[in-house]
Design a protein that fits this description.
Layout: E1 7-8, E2 19-21, E3 31-32, E4 92-98, E5 104-108, E6 111-115, E7 124-131, E8 143-151, E9 156-166, E10 175-183, E11 188-191, E12 194-195, E13 202-209, E14 211-219, E15 244-252, E16 258-264, E17 267-284, E18 287-302, H1 304-312, H2 318-325, E19 332-337, E20 343-363, E21 366-371, E22 374-383, E23 386-391, E24 396-401
Antiparallel strand pairs: 1-3, 2-16, 4-7, 5-6, 6-9, 7-8, 8-14, 9-13, 10-11, 10-14, 12-13, 15-17, 15-24, 16-17, 17-18, 18-20, 19-20, 20-21, 21-22, 22-23, 23-24
Length: 403
C-alpha cells in the first residue's frame, strides 16, 4: 500500500491594521496533516480540558514526584513515578491570590504563571511548586530543569492564562523547547503550543487549566524561520484493546508551528500558530470511523504598549486587538485582560469536518489503519479509558473513551 499526503490550507493569517510584522512573515500558511483524512488523528495542541479527569496532573502533595499512586515499594508499573521515590532537591513553593477582576501572577524557580482579570469566577489562592525530576519521571531524558506544579488541583479558567518557563542557556543544537502538561489519566506529557524563538531565554504557552508543567527538549519539525516547531513527547507504546468511541483530547503536530513577534506602534505581541485537531474515532470489530476537524490555532500575548496603541486605533476589547494582529477571517477568540492593561488571546479558525472509514488491526504496540489504498501505522498505548498515539513522523495525540 502507498501513503498519500493530504495538505490543508486553512489559515492564510495575515498582519494588518497598525500591526507590522518585523520579519515579513505571516503566522501560518498551511500544514501537512497526514493521511488518510488525517487518519492518525495527529495535529496541533488541543488545550481545551475535554474529558479531563487528571486531577492535579500527577504531582503529589509534597510536589516531589510524578505519581500514579504506585505500589508501596516505589514502583509504578507504567513508567510513572511513585510519591515516595524521592526527588533530587527540595521543592520550592510560591503562593498568591488570583482575583476575578485583577487576576494575578505567581513566580518561582524561574517559572511564571500569569492570570489576567476575567479568567476565573471567584478569588482563588494558588501555589506554584517546583521539584526536580526523578529517575522514573516519564520522558526523564527530555525534561529540562524543574517540574512546575500549579494548583489547586482541577482549577480551570474561562479564558487563557500564560505559563512561562526557562530555557537552558546551553540548549543543545537542533533541540526544540516545548512546554508540556502532564496528563495523569493517559500517563503522558501533552505538548502545548509554545512561543519560542532562537535565542530566547524562556518559552511561553497558553492553557486553560492548572496542573503539572515542564519544558521538554526534543527534535522538532520544520518550524518558521524565526520560530521552532513543536516536539511531541514520546509515549510508552504498550498496546492494548481498542473498542468503542474515543474523543480526541489533545493533538500535537511536529511540523507547521510558527512563532512571530509583531509590532503595534512601539509595542509588541508574540504570535504562535499551529494546526490542531478535534473529533473522535470509533473502533467496532475490525472497522473504524474517524470524524476530524482540523483548525488553525493562534495564541497571542500583547504587551501593554501594543494594547494601548490598538485602543487608540479604536479597539475596545482584547478580541478586537487579536483580530487586528491576526487578520484572517473566521477566528473565534477567547481572551483575558483588557485594552487598559494587556491582552492574552487564543483563537481558533475551524476547517470543514472530515469523515474517514476503513479497517484497523493491532499487533503488539502497533495500530494499523487502512482506508482504501492508504495505510497508516503508529504506536499506541491504552491506559484505562485513555489511549495515546504517536506516528513515525513524530506527531502525537491522546483520546478519552466516551462514557
Amino acid at each position: 500500500m502507498k501513503t498519500r499526503v493530504l495538505t490543508l490550507l486553512i489559515v492564510g493569517a495575515g498582519l494588518a491594521a497598525g500591526c507590522g510584522d518585523d520579519d515579513g512573515l505571516s503566522p501560518l500558511a498551511g500544514w501537512d496533516t497526514g493521511v488518510p483524512g488525517d487518519a492518525n488523528m495527529m495535529g496541533g495542541d488541543m488545550d481545551a480540558p475535554v474529558g479531563d479527569a487528571s486531577g492535579d496532573g500527577g504531582i503529589d502533595s509534597a510536589g516531589d514526584a510524578l505519581s500514579d499512586g504506585g505500589a508501596a515499594d516505589g514502583s509504578t508499573g507504567d513508567g510513572g513515578t511513585s510519591s515516595d521515590a524521592g526527588a533530587d532537591a527540595a521543592p520550592t513553593t510560591a503562593m498568591g491570590t488570583i482575583t476575578t477582576t485583577g487576576g494575578g501572577q505567581v513566580q518561582v524557580g524561574g517559572g511564571t504563571v500569569t492570570v489576567l482579570g476575567g479568567s476565573i469566577a471567584t478569588n482563588t489562592n494558588v501555589t506554584l511548586t517546583t521539584s526536580q525530576p526523578v529517575n522514573n519521571t516519564p520522558n526523564r531524558m527530555d525534561v529540562s530543569g524543574s517540574i512546575y506544579n500549579f494548583s489547586p488541583a482541577g482549577t480551570t479558567f474561562s479564558s487563557p492564562i500564560s505559563v512561562t518557563l526557562p530555557v537552558p542557556a546551553d540548549l543543545p543544537a537542533g533541540k526544540t523547547p516545548t512546554i508540556a502538561w502532564y496528563d495523569d489519566v493517559a500517563k503522558v506529557w501533552i505538548a502545548l503550543l509554545s512561543a519560542w524563538r532562537q535565542g530566547d531565554a524562556s518559552v511561553t504557552a497558553l492553557t486553560s487549566r492548572a496542573g503539572t508543567f515542564a519544558v521538554l527538549l526534543g527534535e522538532g519539525g520544520a518550524g518558521g524561520p524565526q520560530g521552532a516547531s513543536t516536539y511531541c513527547p514520546k509515549i510508552d507504546s504498550c498496546g492494548g484493546t481498542l473498542a468503542g468511541k474515543y474523543n480526541l483530547t489533545s493533538s500535537c503536530a511536529k511540523t507547521g508551528t510558527t512563532t512571530e513577534i509583531v509590532t503595534c506602534g512601539t509595542g509588541k505581541a508574540s504570535v504562535a500558530a499551529t494546526i490542531e485537531n478535534s473529533g473522535s474515532i470509533t473502533f467496532t470489530d475490525a472497522n473504524y470511523e474517524q470524524v476530524t476537524t482540523a483548525s488553525s490555532r493562534s495564541d497571542i500575548v500583547a504587551d501593554a504598549t501594543c494594547t494601548a496603541f490598538q485602543k487608540g486605533e479604536g479597539s475596545t476589547t482584547c478580541a478586537a486587538v487579536a483580530a487586528k494582529i491576526v487578520t484572517a477571517a473566521g477566528y473565534s477568540w477567547s481572551c483575558s485582560g483588557s485594552v487598559d492593561t494587556n491582552c492574552v488571546c487564543s483563537g481558533l479558525q475551524a476547517g470543514p469536518p472530515q469523515t474517514t472509514t476503513g479497517t484497523f488491526s493491532t499487533a503488539g504496540n502497533k495500530l494499523t489503519l487502512a482506508s482504501g489504498p492508504v495505510m497508516v501505522v503508529q504506536d499506541y498505548c491504552v491506559q484505562g479509558n485513555a489511549v495515546s498515539f504517536r506516528d513515525n513522523r513524530g506527531n502525537a495525540s491522546t483520546a478519552l473513551k466516551a462514557q
